[in-house]
Amino acid sequence: MAKGYWITFYREIKDTAKLAAYAKLAPGATAPFGARYLCRGNPQAVFEAGLMDRVVITEFPSVEQAIAAHNCPGYQEAVRVLGDGAVRDVRIIEGLE
Q1: C-alpha span between 44 and 96 (Å, rounded)
Q2: Where in the chain are the domains?
Q3: Which CATH architecture has domain 4-94?
Q4: In this structure, how many other beta carbons lie within 10 angstroms of the beta carbon of residue 33?
Q5: Which of 29, 41, 57, 69 is deepest in the core (most CB within 10 A)?
Q6: Cβ atoms of 66 and 6 closer than 8 Å
Q7: Phi, psi of 58 (to 5 degrees)
Q8: How many CA atoms lie within 13 A of 7 on its CB side?
């Protein structure tokens, strides 16, 4: 079964305190689903569209686990805490292997 990847692009961070509160809750909520954070931060270089958005890439054992993690009550509480603190684009994709 191919792994699932959860890729989050932060288009705008409006409230760093809300983001910090979210960041305390999210890892604990997604861990039971096999979440493994591969990278997070601002790009070291950008090309083509040149967007300097913060990015977080999280690996899961499968797409199904990634979706279940996103929809679980613990993670939804983290999203509620984040509220309007950031404008994000969350994508879940299947790995090639």
Answers
A1: 25
A2: 4-94
A3: 2-Layer Sandwich (3.30)
A4: 23
A5: 69
A6: yes
A7: -120, 130
A8: 9
